[in-house]
TrEMBL record:
PANTHER family: ALLANTOINASE. Substrate binds at residues 60-62, 92, 317, 331-332. Catalyzes the reversible cyclization of carbamoyl aspartate to dihydroorotate. One of its GO terms (cellular component) is cytoplasm. It is an enzyme of class 3 (hydrolase). Pfam families: DHOase. The gene is pyrC. This is Dihydroorotase. Residues 47-216 form the Dihydroorotase catalytic domain. It comes from Meiothermus luteus. Transmembrane segments: none annotated.
């Protein structure tokens, strides 16, 4: 059997576990064999890990309209460098992605860029204004994979209920940025000891949990009313969980069998409000960085599966915008290029978090939310893969990012686990083998 690439002595890690080493032969877009064979190119992978490609459910690529912050090319390049083969783009662009033609245009443009694959999300309501629902069926037919007004919050519970019902009938999950606008008010950071000391307007943890509590009741209402209940998929997806209390509510609702899912970001798993002591807007993000107790709870939630996946919420802005003072700078942290090494280092290496569980939260978890089958490392599987190095340590240097946002709260951190090669259906979309 002749293939295109042979990974010699690669350590296989997927969501099912760690499977020792194998010679993985890739060709025709698939894994042809786990026991070697002839290939045009041989990659020595001793001491390196091969995993299914990562899937990001939440990234802001800013196209159309905000290309000064990021565009499809730079964003999908950054994703490929981060080991991502697939990415869901948020629709809060200029204009908002709320029509089928806009979804098609994004997909056509992304198809010309041979990097990570793009799966556009579309808005739940027209213009993300929270009033009039978008055409879920047409958006679905155009290739939208979920509906969300992210960037904004869904204030009208009646609109959300109708939207959930409509989206569910077309097989689309709805993702929500769960924060109560009234409780959050003008908060620029977590409300607590640090915000009080600094005299800055705070965003209380209860802004998140109050909204989650309401949304869970909305899901319950819709779920009871649905005539045909889609089995095994998420109806409502909570984005970027940040609080221990919010997690408790999600955990309890999942135990009761409500069709919900939830994600957590790399920053909410590694940073706290104490990082804002120096008033640096690099750490300004929505929802805000919380306390160490919240971080501990979120890591636990990721482990047990109450949190289904890690999603980056990659949110690039220009350096000028991020250089404004803390009150005026925009919210957001870019992380596509560091998410995997960051969490591999901070969770697996430093805290003993199980590697295969982390891989699951980057691969199977997000895929399941969209109703996609898992990719496991076996013969015949789609060759959308990442080869990464668990041992070589490198310092985060944002100046070398492919993303236009060349700054990072993790600049200078020494991390391991860097992706070396990313393949989409057997094609190399990132090569960092040096
Ligand atoms: Zn959001």
């Amino acid at each position: 059997m002749k293939g295109e690439i042979l990974f010699k002595n690669a350590t296989l890690v997927d969501a099912r576990g760690e499977h020792g080493t194998a010679d993985v032969l890739v060709g025709e877009g698939r894994i042809l064999s786990l026991s070697g064979g002839e290939a045009q190119r041989v990659v020595e992978a001793k001491g390196r890990c091969l995993s299914p490609g990562f899937f990001d459910l939440h990234a802001h690529l800013r196209e159309p309209g905000q290309e000064v912050k990021e565009d499809l090319r730079s964003g999908l390049e950054a994703a490929a460098r981060g080991g991502y083969t697939d990415l869901v783009s948020m629709p809060n662009t200029t204009p908002v992605v709320d029509r089928a033609e806009a979804v098609r245009a994004l997909r056509e443009k992304a198809a010309q860029i041979d990097r990570a694959r793009l799966h556009p999300a579309a808005a739940l309501t027209q213009g993300q204004e929270g009033q009039v629902l978008c055409e879920a069926r047409l958006l679905r037919e155009a290739g939208a994979v979920l509906l969300t007004d992210d960037g904004r919050t869904n204030e009208d519970a009646g609109v959300l209920a109708l939207g959930l019902r409509y989206a569910a009938s077309w097989g689309l999950p709805v993702a929500v940025h769960a924060e109560d606008a009234g409780l959050r008010r003008g908060g620029v950071m977590h409300e607590g000891e640090v915000s009080w000391r600094l005299g800055l307007p705070g965003n209380p943890a209860y802004a998140e949990s109050a909204r989650i509590a309401r949304d869970l009741e909305v899901v319950r209402y819709v779920w009871e009313a649905l005539e045909t209940r889609p089995q095994g998929r998420s109806l409502l997806h909570f984005q970027h969980l940040s609080t221990r209390r919010g997690l408790e509510l999600v955990r309890q609702a999942k135990r009761e069998g409500l069709p919900i899912s939830a994600e957590v970001t790399p920053h909410h798993l590694t940073l706290t409000d104490a990082h804002l002591e120096g008033l640096d807007p690099l750490y300004k993000v929505a929802p805000p960085l919380r306390t160490w107790a919240d971080v501990e709870a979120l890591v636990e939630g990721l482990l047990e599966g109450s949190l289904d996946c890690v999603a980056t919420d990659h949110a690039p802005h220009t350096e000028d915008e991020k250089s404004l003072d803390l009150l005026r700078a925009p919210f957001g942290i870019p992380s596509l290029e560091v998410a995997w090494p960051l969490l591999y280092t901070e969770l697996v290496q430093k805290r003993g978090f199980p590697l295969s569980v982390l891989v699951a939260r980057f691969t199977d978890g997000p895929r399941r939310i969209l109703g996609l089958p898992p990719i496991h490392l076996e013969e015949g599987a789609e060759a959308s893969l990442v080869l990464w190095d668990p041992s070589q340590r490198r310092t985060v240097d944002p100046k070398g990012f492919a993303s236009k946002a060349r700054y990072s709260p993790w600049a200078g951190w020494g991390l391991s686990g860097w992706p070396l090669l990313t393949l989409v259906e057997g094609r190399v979309v990132f090569e960092g083998l040096g």
